[in-house]
Amino acid sequence: MPDARPRLRADAQRNTEQIRRVAIDAFQGRGLTVPLEEVAKAAGVSKATIFNRFGGRIGLIEAVIDEVVANELYAIVDRTRAVEDISERIAYYITAIRDLQYRQPAANDVMLQAYPHAPQLMEICRAAGEINDELIAAGRVSGALRPEFTAGDLHAYIHDNALALKHGPRPARDDYDRRTRFFLDGIRAGR
After folding, report:
1. DSSP annotation of 145
2. Using CA atoms, how far apart are residues 18 and 11, in angstroms rounded to an integer?
3. Which residues of 59-89 are buried (b: 16+ CB within 10 A; e: fewer)?
4. For residue 58, what is the domain's CATH number?
5. How many CB atoms lie within 10 A of CB 154?
6. For residue 152, what pLDDT is reported?
7. Which domain holds residue 127?
8. Among 53, 128, 175, 191, which is 20 to 30 Å from 98 by CA?
9. What is the pLDDT of residues 128-155, one digit of tens each?
């Protein structure tokens, strides 16, 4: 079935691709709240062109979210599910998610559900919630986790980390990684 959308002129197509490239770089570097005026200026277009091509911020986010953070987050989920030992699976997931949060400001915007009207962002949140629930349930059944530790606790931990990274001073990487190890030690069941 042929595509019913009209073909863009070559210059309009170049503008659209330039906006996408700039948005990916900006969102990865500073998060999804980068002003659209800055994206437009860096792309060499007007803000109106972004609205014309993408319908605004939500449309632009939806157009680039896979490249910005979704592909990496889904890869973490897939790799997590491939780890056989539940203790190692939990440690891998928490370490990988915290690493993603530290490196990609857009991950924190996703985890904070900064744009609840963006369907792809909400799907990412749903998938993350699903793996959180799976991990905690399996960890509790196996005895790998403290029995009082819940999926809600893990969700709150990831959410609080997103808030701290978005609004607080950025910790040194060594301190950040040390705190991840402290957290993992704290949720493990006593031997």
Report:
1. B
2. 10
3. ebbbbbbebbbbebbbebbeebeeeeebbeb
4. 1.10.357.10
5. 24
6. 95
7. 10-187
8. 191
9. 999 999 999 999 999 999 999 999 999 9
